[in-house]
Each structure stands twice: as C-alpha cells, then as structure tokens.
Amino acid sequence: MGCQMNVYDSEQMLRLLAPLNYRPTSRPDKADLIVLNTCSIREKAEHKVYSLLGRLVRMKQQRPDLIIGVGGCVAQQEGYRLFERAPHVDIVFGTFALGRLHSLVQKVEDQKKQIVDINPRRESEPLYVKEPIFTTGNATAFVTIMQGCDNFCSYCVVPYVRGREVSRNPKGILEEIEGLVENDISEVTLIGQNVNAYGQKNGHGCDFPALLEYVGDVKGLRRIRFTTSHPKDLSDRLIETFCRVDKLAPHIHLPVQSGSDRMLRRMNRGYTRDFYLKKVAKLRNVRPDIAISTDIIVGFPGEERVDFEATLDLVRKVGFDSLFLFKYSDRPNVPAAKFSNKVPEAVKVERFSTLLEIQEKFTLKKNKALVRTTQDVLVEGPGKRLPNQLTGRTPCNRIVNFPDGMARVGRIVPVRIVEAFSHSLLGQPVGRDHEEYSGEDGGISHAA
Ligand code: SAH
Ligand code: SF4
Ligand code: F3S
Q: Hey, whose CA ends up nearest to atom 2 of ligand 1?
C-alpha cells in the first residue's frame, strides 16, 4: 500500500526473507506468511489496513500457524496499539525495523508470540538487499535514493513515520542501477520523499544534479525519471539538468498543494505561489516539452473560498499535464490536526469535484494535442484494456496502448498516436517491422 517507497521496500522484504526459504506467492490462502506494508498518509489509507486485516481473521482461525506481519507507516505510528484492533497479528514492525524483518519472523517461528519493533534505531542508509531479485521481467524499476523528510509540512505524517532525511551513498545507487540494467531494466525512477534534497546532509560529496549525471552515464540504461521534488529545493542547476542529461525524461512531479499564499504558509511549505510559478516558467524555458504534474490538497483547515479560487487560478495558469487531488484529512500528531476552522466534508467534496472537472479538461486537451504525433514509447507489458495490446509510456509519462506486434518489453518503439482519452492514448506502431527502430541509442525523435 502507499507510495513508491513502499513498493521498493516490499521488494527488499522479499529478498530479506529468501534465506529463510520464503518465496512470493499470488495465493494468500496458501501463504505461510502474510506481510502488509502499510500507508498512513490519509485516514482512508489507514482504514484500508484494518479492513484488509479484518479479512484475514478467518484465515488465521483456520490456520493458526499462519504468520501475519504488519509493517510500514501505520505500524510505525501505532506500535502495540495495533494489537487492540487486530489481535490476530503476530508482528508489528515499523519503517525503522525493515532491515530486521527476517529476525522478527524467525523469532515468531521459534517462540510463537507476538512481537513489536518500532525502535527508531535503523541502518545508516535506506535498506537495499542485493539478491535475489524477484521483480525480473519488468522494463522499469524504482530505486530509493533517500528516505525520510525534514520538511514537516503541517498536514503530513511522513516525517513522523519515516524519520529524518537520509541519503544513500551514490556508489551503492549506481551499482544497483547497473545490476538492474543487467537484468533488462530499461528505465529507472529515482525515488524519495524529497529527492532534490538528495545529498544535502550526508556529505557524500554528490548532490542530486550530480547524481543524475552519473546515472545518465550508466551504459544500457534508456530512461531516467525521479519523484518527488519539493519546489523549494528545485535549483536552477537541477532545472538545467533536463538539458544536460539526454536520458532524463521530460517530466517532473512538483507538488504545489495550494495556490493561496495564506494556505501555503499554514501548510509550512516554504515557498509562495509566485515562487512556484517562476519555477514552472524556468522549467518550460529550459525544456519547452516538459510535462508537469502536481498534488493539491483541498479543504485544508481555514481554506476560504478566496484561497480555493487562488488554487483554481494557479491550476489554470500552469495548465498541469496531470494532477493528483486529495481532500485534507487529519493525521495523528501533525500540527494541522489541531488547527481551527476545519472545512466541512461537503465543501471539500464540492471543491474536489470543481477542481477535478477543470483538470480533466486540461488533461484531455493536452492528450488530444498528441494525436497524429509519433512518440517514443517504452514498452512495459501487456495492455490492460484489450487482449493483444501492449502498453508503455511516452517520455512525458503518458500511457499509450497499442496493438501487439513485434515489440518487446523494455524496447523503445515509435508509436503514432491515433486517439486520446483522459487517462491514456491509443497508438499504432510506426513501420512494418518497428523493432528496427529500437537500436541501442534509442530516443530517436520522429516528426509528426
Ligand atoms: N513528499 C511529497 C509527497 C508525499 S505524500 C511532497 O512533499 O510533495 C503525497 C501527497 O499526499 C502530498 O503531496 C499531499 O498532497 C498529500 N497529503 C499528505 N498528507 C495529507 C493529508 N493529511 N491530507 C490530505 N492529503 C495529504
Ligand atoms: Fe510530507 Fe511535506 Fe515531507 Fe512531502 S515534503 S513528505 S508533504 S512533510
Ligand atoms: Fe504512505 Fe508512508 Fe509512503 S505514509 S505515502 S507509505 S511514506
């Protein structure tokens, strides 16, 4: 559950447990061990954990030897309290205990008693277990480059459940990416809660733009993405990197959260609306084709109609390629939970749908502008909509479905866009044998 960091951590869990002879299965009813890697970002995410745990009660009754573990952000937040609502859980291990999962499992196997580990002691770097890799066969992979967050936005639980920012050593990151390329990975997304703060604290002598240049030199790697960036840490040098590093895809996720200065202050975001708009202008100046996506919270405590109007205005001014919209939700221990002037649910719902409607028009318009162009699509796998379809992404991160031909997962193929929808594009591979276009250099641009 949750963000890309959890996807990455779940893979590390599989690798940690491999020496104990645990292997992944798609059949929970046959599993000896079920681990939920949880998210606490909004109330709804936390509810999801308890409803899933509810569904495991009967399984545990029928098979008392089944071990149930709860890890991730809800585990870190709740600790022992989790047993009150879910007494059938065996292990609660927080984000700090990720690297101790295998010994916790062993302890439960031996002693058959409940264990909690939310001890804030952790490795000096985000956990990375070299082998064995279970996600082979994919074209893309996430690589955690830093974890935690020092920003303490007033609504956000992340600094409390993930701790302070810690960056990985660049050498380890590069070795991991080289290993992924050897396993046929074509695209990596460098991930962290605030990737552009990478290296600021740890003294590895390598900041984020420098890391991107190193990653850009990895032989055989075709594309690089990164997420998430904080506007206040988006330096001019990083913006220029979009021109310097060829493999860097022209897309940035740059959460703005609100278009109102008053709200941005209350959110403790550390920038103004004007600052954000200037960053967007700089990005577009350096890389006119860049796609910009964002996150917005509606109904933050004290958000008045004028504040919301300012957000609508910013959304119209920027014209985002896509937008992730959230209704504000109280989280344990965060300052905003104690703020007065909470916005009623009905107002949040109304603002949510107003903004969504505006954005859908933008997204569709931007997608339609791509019809009759040819895009370099990195093939990710079978399409989800129809049989005999493949799916992949354009450099700007748009999903393209197209008829299955000779294209193989991991290749970059030129695809002519024939139809645009709100959330995807439909295309037709260019050329009789389009494989011939996907030579080692990739990234060939094709005029419309
Ligand atoms: N580190 C990233 C985002 C992490 S969480 C950043 O700083 O941008 C992903 C998104 O969840 C946030 O951008 C925010 O829009 C949303 N979010 C976080 N806490 C929230 C809360 N309490 N209620 C509603 N949305 C929230
Ligand atoms: Fe949360 Fe703010 Fe950190 Fe993002 S930057 S993880 S929103 S505290
Ligand atoms: Fe959720 Fe934790 Fe990620 S709260 S968004 S899983 S850092």
A: 193
